[in-house]
Amino acid sequence: MVERLIQSGHEVRVSDLYAMQWKATLDADDFSHIEPGAHFDPVTDSLRAVEAGTQRDDVAAEQAKLLWADTVIFQFPMWWYTMPAILKGWIDRVYAYGFAYGVGEHSDTHWGDRFGQGVMSGKRAMLVVTTGGWASHYSARGINGPMEDLLFPIHHGVLYYPGFDVLPPYVVYRTGKVDAPAYSKITEELGQRLDTLWTTEPIPFRPQNFGDYDIPALTLRDEIAPGESGFAVHTAPKKNENAR
């Protein structure tokens, strides 16, 4: 990915969490203002550190990368139906209160800058996920459930929440069976996805503050996808479907 993007003229910054020996736990050690033995509140202590500019250097450096980037690619193996703990810990610490959430006004018509708004608005994000199972295992009737459902908490809750435009993922299945021809095919397919980062249509999630949801209940209005429920209702029909 790095080679392809650089060849296309992009500047790339990489966070290799294992090489960085990333600290995964969000705890009192992240905040210099907390006295020994004092109560730790991850929300208020996080906000205080953000506002005072006293976050740990590793956290501040990752936040700076997010603010710098036009597009962020999260590449990870699916472990137990989600991201590995070290990446979840990156989210827990870098997505600080006052930085990625807890921003914007809260009123009867606007419930914070999130789900389509926020500090990442105007940026794109994409998952590149590897898994050992077959594609059929993650199909609509597959034993693991549909891949789009498994990734919904990440796509919608981790990426769309702070404002990213979320691109469809690139998923590699049966990684333990990848031989040289398969690797070449994967590399080319993924390369084509990287070449079209700014022309690929993002997943059409419904924005929170623009009429689809009742506020402050944050439920879809009765006339939106009536009688339907589940993850899919939070994605608007594609334009060609609207025309039918």
Mean pLDDT: 94
Using the alpha-carbon principal axes, give the shape. Answer: globular
Task: Note the gap between the termini.
Answer: 38 Å
User: Which percent range describes the beta-strand content?
Assistant: 5-15%
What is the domain tally?
A: 1
How would you classify the quaternary structure? single chain
What is the number of E strands?
6
- CATH class equals Alpha Beta
Segments where pLDDT lies below 50 for 5+ residues? none
CATH architecture classification name:
3-Layer(aba) Sandwich
Radius of gyration: 20 Å
Return the CATH topology: Rossmann fold
SS-based structural class? Answer: alpha/beta
Query: H/E series, N to C?
Result: HHHEHEHHEEHEEH
Helix content: 25-40%
Write up what this structure looks like.
The protein is of the alpha/beta class and 244 residues long. The longest helix has 16 residues, at 180-195. 30% of the residues lie in helices and 9% in strands. The strands form 2 sheets. Strands 1, 2, 3 and 4 form a 4-stranded parallel beta sheet that branches. It has a two-stranded antiparallel ribbon with strand order 5-6.
Write the layout of secondary structure elements.
Layout: H1 2-7, H2 42-52, H3 57-68, E1 71-77, H4 85-94, E2 124-130, H5 147-150, H6 152-160, E3 165-166, E4 170-172, H7 180-195, E5 213-214, E6 219-220, H8 239-242
Parallel strand pairs: 1-2, 2-3, 2-4
Antiparallel strand pairs: 5-6
